[in-house]
Amino acid sequence: MAEQAYRPGIRGVAAHVGMSVSTVSRALNGYSDVSSDTRRKVERAAGELGYRASFAASSLRTQNTQTVTFMVSKPWTKFVDPFFLGLLDGVELALQAQGYALQVVMAREYEKEFEMIRSAVERNRCDGLLFGRTRPVDERIEWLQDRAFPFVTVGRTDKADHDWVEVDHYKIGYQATERLIRLGHDRIAHLTTPLRYTYSNHTLQGYRDALHAHGLSRDPELEAECYLSRRTGADAMTELIARGVGPTAVFCGNDMIAVSAMESMRRFGIRPGTDVAVIGCDDIPVAAYVTPGLTTFRQDLDSLGMRLGRMMVARLRGDPGPHQELIEAELIPRGTDVPPAAGVAK
């Protein structure tokens, strides 16, 4: 990141010449729809401002690799993750249809992922990047935009000027909570996925807005942040039970949290789907086979992946965008969304 202290990004060049970032990017990359006068003006300004790093990247990118990199970090580094596998299949189909190969690169943590993204761009290892687990303020996006490098994300950020595909997690949070309220629940816990991710905040806001819309007060004690390896759904559920908080229903940010929470209930003699209602999210394969079957939300991962791939191709072919698609999930009712059981968990 040190180089940013003394080299301007493409936005700096755009501001200097009074043009859009898109026009400056196309001028530096040799697109034919940019006039020779504009190109000369942009190149002169970039040279004066010391935009040499981007000149090198621009030169390299004229030697297309016909490869797109999908950058993954925890928890997507587990190739058995059904979400990852379904998404990857759709992406690969869309890219192959247009002559692009897909390569998957793994990073064990977010910080390493940024280093690998930087290496992929500067060493011309791919023509475009795909990645997810976006954060409200995401330095990966800032860095790539500053270099006009093609990318598409699985998930939004607080910015509105980049390409993304995302499932409508706000609607999931609202719909799940409203469903439980209509069943008669007034003490609904929400076990969230990590709140460093944008989608987790959207889900949480949907949950809170549904409570407010139906005249229920938010209780911070009923909200708990969960992870895969520490403070799991079981840990969070155990804490709620031990504190005597007594939710009659639990909405979980993903199915792994939900299944884990259900196991914790059983250890305390509480029957999920009878004594306490549970709704998950993702519809992983095991959701249909736990007892009782988990009510959850299904995401069409093949379709999401194909949209992601097509969006990447559009960007690589010079479509300035931004391209943004919000996809609805489908509620899959099974056996765990039930009315409150009298006298239990209160």
Question: Mind explaining what this structure looks like?
Answer:
This protein is of the alpha/beta class and about 350 residues long. The protein has 3 domains: about 10-55, 434 Repressor (Amino-terminal Domain) (Orthogonal Bundle); about 65-165 and about 300-325, 3-Layer(aba) Sandwich (Rossmann fold), CATH 3.40.50; about 170-300, 3-Layer(aba) Sandwich (Rossmann fold), CATH 3.40.50.2300. The protein is about 40% helix and about 15% strand. The strands form 3 sheets. Strands 2-1-3-4-5-11 form a 6-stranded parallel sheet. It has a 4-stranded parallel sheet with strand order 7-6-8-9, with helices on both faces. Helix 1 crosses helix 3, helix 8 runs parallel beside helix 9 and helix 10 packs across helix 11 (about 255-265). It is elongated and about 75 Å long. The protein starts with 9 loop residues before the first helix and ends in a 14-residue tail after the last strand.
Short descriptors:
Rossmann fold, alpha/beta, 346 residues, 6-stranded parallel beta sheet, 4-stranded parallel beta sheet, 12 helices, 12 strands, 3 domains
Question: Which helices and strands occur, and which strands form pairs?
Answer:
Elements: H1 10-17, H2 21-28, H3 36-49, H4 52-61, E1 67-73, H5 82-96, E2 101-107, H6 110-122, E3 128-132, H7 139-146, E4 151-154, E5 164-167, H8 169-182, E6 188-192, H9 198-213, E7 223-225, H10 233-242, E8 249-252, H11 255-267, E9 277-279, E10 296-298, H12 301-316, E11 324-327, E12 330-332
Parallel strand pairs: 1-2, 1-3, 3-4, 4-5, 5-11, 6-7, 6-8, 8-9
Antiparallel strand pairs: 10-12
